[in-house]
Amino acid sequence: MLVVRNATKSYGATQALRGVSFSAERGEIFAVLGENGAGKSTLLRILAGATRPDSGILNLDGQDLKIKSPREALQNGMVLIPQELAYVPGLSVAENIMLGQRPTRRGLITQRSLRSRAEPFARQLGVEGSLDRPMSSLSLAEAQLVEIAKGLARNARVMLLDEPTATLSQPETERLFTTLNDLRRKNIVMIYISHRLDEVMGHCDRVMVMRDGSVSLTGAVRDFTKRQLITSMLGNNDAYSSTQTTSRTAPSATPFLTLSGLGHSGSSEMSDVSLDVRSGEVLGVYGVRGGGQEALLECLAGLRPHTTGSITMSGIDVPPLKSVRQSRHLGISYIPPDRKKNGLILDASISANLSLPQLGQVSRAGLISVQRERVLLKRTATAMKLKYRAGSQRVRELSGGNQQKVLVGSRLAGAPKLLAVQEPTRGVDIGARREIHELLAQLAAIGTAVVVATTDIEEAVELPDRLAVVRGGKIVALLQGQDKTQERALLEAVGGSHD
Cα–Cα distance between 9 and 52 in angstroms, integer? Predict the structure, then answer.
């Protein structure tokens, strides 16, 4: 169905693609793996018509194509579901799903016809609520589902999925793969980029691993182990073992932070939460979207003060946290889940993004010291293994993994007593994921209390010492040791049977 032969692309002296060749069959999910910068996104942009290759042949269903624009790609059935969501915030859900193909009657568009055409695609992916809602009112995960529904509405022959599950919970991910399996029967080719190896091993038919713009491995998924895929991505025979977190001494027996009956009046997002967090431990908080983990961490960050219950730190009562400044004064640093919306200033420099949360460190007599900024940049870049050209480089120009490292590094520079982090490795590659996990483990090893909220079931079980599972705004299980398994965590999060 889809054949790519010897695709090359250069940006100046940088060789983004080096003779990439592959083929994908009708009705299969073809996974593309690789670190950030391996060439995956460049390949997808070429297939989507957003980038022209320097050389190479694209053949679709036996016909050679020269796609010069995204419009031509769409006309040929090449539909991109981007990682960076491409919706119009002011339009409704239905209008976004039907963008570019609005149904008309005698030249007029009616909201009723929009809804009737959009509804089957929205419901197929489990998009809940009114389709007349503006997109700006949706959460990140809901917006992602609408983007995928928009792709289904375009009569795709080839669907290009760039990390579609990065913002989805485990049940939502399973629902998506149910939909993709339905598309198999329609002979649609699905090119699937993901950093989640469990998804690839469990749902994809074939896999291609890219490294430094070249194909380093390709074949049926069943022919490879997870270790082989990681080694091929990183080019290191010890890569698999190095993904494990640093071994640490036992956390403090005395709680650093104690939450007692915490809740929001009139809201089910956080209700009667009681939990201890110890210095020197990584405590995970896992739940499906809307389970309550986001509300809990926003409470610690000072974004959503609790109205019931109490907080103590080091045995001292703490009033409701009503601002980020108040939380920071108590030694709490917060890393939000959406780095581009709430965490970074994309058009500002790396140095500026690192310095803004730490102005006290880099200023003297009210003026920012360039020398202190350089020291902060060098220290953070070394600790985070940051790949960049210069401190003046815009954050927007960095890969997703390096953007996340800037975000994490900017919060760690203040040496917090407690780090509250949501989705620490969302949208980053295997190598960056390993490095961030190592950094959080090292932070705990020096006595910091680390709370990690994640909807990634693999991360939820792999990273923390203990795992609190939330459902309906309440903690329903606290797992550790042999009880801390993916199956148990997921069952508790969705309220399933233990049989």
Answer: 8
Distance CA 403, CA 343 (A): 10
In the numeric block, the tokens 């780090």 are attached to 419
Nearest to 291, CA basis, from 483, 475, 489:
475
Pairing of β 332-335 and β 418-422: parallel
Q: Name the 3-class secondary structure at 9.
A: strand
pLDDT for 266 equals 67
CA atoms of 43 and 187, how far apart (whole Å): 22
CA distance 37 to 169: 26
- Can you tell me the distance from the alpha carbon of 381 to that of 384, in angstroms, rounded to the nearest whole number? 5
Backbone region of residue 83 per phi and psi (left: phi > 0; alpha: psi in -120 to 50; beta: other values): alpha
Rounded Cα distance between 157 and 64, Å, is 15
Q: Decide if 421 contacts 450 (C-beta within 8 A).
A: yes
Per-residue pLDDT reduced to its tens digit, 46-94? 999 988 988 989 988 888 888 888 888 888 888 888 876 778 888 999 9
- Beta carbons of 442 and 454 less than 8 angstroms apart: no
pLDDT attached to residue 429: 73
CB 402 within 8 A of CB 346: no
Structure token digits, residue 212: 């430094």
Strands 214-220 and 206-211: antiparallel
The three-state DSSP-derived secondary structure of 134-159 is EHHHCCHHHHHHHHHHHHHCCCCCEE
Q: Which residues of the chain have pLDDT under 50?
A: 238-247, 497-499
| Partners of 216 in the β-ladder | none
pTM of the model: 0.66
What phi and psi, each to the nearest 5 degrees, are found at residue 104? -125, 155
CB 412 within 8 A of CB 383: yes
Rg of the chain taking only CA atoms, in angstroms: 23
- Neighbouring CB atoms inside 10 A of 156's CB total 20
Give which of 77, 129, 122 is closest to 98, Cα–Cα: 122
Burial class (CB within 10 angstroms; exposed 0-12, middle 13-18, buried 19+) of 112 = exposed
Task: Give the pLDDT score at 165.
Answer: 79
Rounded to 10°, the helix 430-445/400-412 angle is 10
